[in-house]
Amino acid sequence: MPRPVIAIISTGGTIARQAADPRDTVDYAEIGTNIGGDDLLEALPEGVRARFAVRGIAFSSCDSVEMTLPRWFELAGVINRTLLEQPNVDGVVVTHGTSSLEEAACFLDLVLDVSCPVVVVGAQRPASAISADGPANLFAALLVASAPQAAGRGVLVVANNEIHAAQEVTKASTYQLETFRSPDFGPIGMVEANRVIFGRMPAYRRHIGWPEAYGVGGTVPRVDICYSHAGADGVGIRAFVAAGARGLISAGMLPGMCTPAENVALDEAVTRGVVVVQATSGYCGGVVQRQELCQRGILAAGHMRPRQARILLALALMTGMDRDGMQALFDMP
Questions:
Q1: 97 and 180 Cβ atoms separated by less than 8 Å
Q2: Which residues pair with 8 in a beta bridge?
Q3: Any residues with CB less than 8 A from the CB of 295 and at least 6 apart, and which?
Q4: In this structure, are residues 7 and 86 in contact, taking their beta carbons and an 8 Å threshold?
Q5: Average pLDDT over residues 32-43
Q6: Which fold has domain 5-198?
Q7: Exposed e or buried b per residue across 114-124, where buried means at least 16 C-beta atoms within 10 angstroms of its C-beta
Q8: What is residue 302's three-state secondary structure?
Q9: Radius of gyration of the chain (CA)
Q10: pLDDT of res. 267
Q11: Class in CATH terms, 223-330
Q12: Do 262 and 233 form a contact (C-beta atoms < 8 A)?
């Protein structure tokens, strides 16, 4: 039986870092060193590696806090070119730092149009740590990427033997291994006893595709996130608008509400043509299109968390999508 052909695109992050002290699971990010994609594979037993025909592609070695939308456009371009030039590839695994992994996965899910599985995977502990989770996560990701039933489910995130839909997942814990969770709907599957098991299809998949406005050297419209808190006065909102923001995501207090002073600043932004989306800073739950938001010309983020809503809004602005089209995307259950 032929081995599944999997392209592994490495981008850096904890999964590709090591420290001098095996007890170090904190300072490695600043004082550790990088390892390459080949080193990640070498951490797997030979019998495991022999199950897959792996093609390694080095994309970057930067930490995920250094990632930007233009870099993710480059990453999406590498995935598209790889699948175009190597049509026998059965699946793609992207290794990524966990700090912005949920944003990377959401971005890829919104722009990619590919038929094979694309899996994003990271680690909570560096490769040098006692009981490093990178090898186990990578093996699980390879299993999912090579599973025919994983195709057609959008970009997936695999961690701690759970499979999550890209637009449902968030990083919930700073150091614990079970950090990736889908708070509203739960994981869509699992890896158990080396088997890939799916329990459901994703509840939705918002999709935009590759914006034609983004070419070589293209620019991404500025979209900022405003975090609400008791006594907030709207100064930050006005500063973002003055800096050229074309969109604002308001991470409001639950269930998606801001202070009176913030509301004044947000209304000012709307009158200046800035697209404002009301989200919530809560762990789960959505923001619905209530009457007050509609009257003020503010969109509701639905179940999208602020960081992911920012990506969707930036991409939608690039396509020239109207407000009704944007709201239809946010409204997906």
A1: no
A2: 56, 93
A3: none
A4: yes
A5: 74
A6: Rossmann fold (3.40.50)
A7: bebbbbbbbbb
A8: strand
A9: 20
A10: 98
A11: alpha beta
A12: yes
The conformation of residue 44, written as its DSSP 8-state character, comes to: S
φ, ψ dihedrals at 225, nearest 5°: -115, 130
Which residues are catalytically annotated?
A: 14
Q: pLDDT tens-digit profile of 226-242?
A: 999 999 999 999 999 99
Fold matches, 5-198 and 223-330: yes
Query: What H or E segment, with its residue span, contains residue 224?
Result: strand 223-227
Q: How far apart are CA 292 and CA 279, in angstroms?
A: 14
CA dihedral 253, 259, 264, 265 (to 10 degrees): -60
> Where do the structural domains in the chain lie, given as residue ranges?
5-198, 223-330
Type of residue at 328? A
Q: What is the pLDDT of residue 37?
A: 65
Is the bond preceding residue 255 a cis peptide, omega within 30 degrees?
A: yes
Q: Residue 78 carries which side chain, given as an amino acid letter?
A: V
Q: Which of 171, 174, 206, 201 is nearest to 189 (CA)?
A: 201
* Residue 89, helix vs strand vs coil: coil
Element holding 265 (H helix, E strand):
helix 260-271
Mean pLDDT of the chain: 92
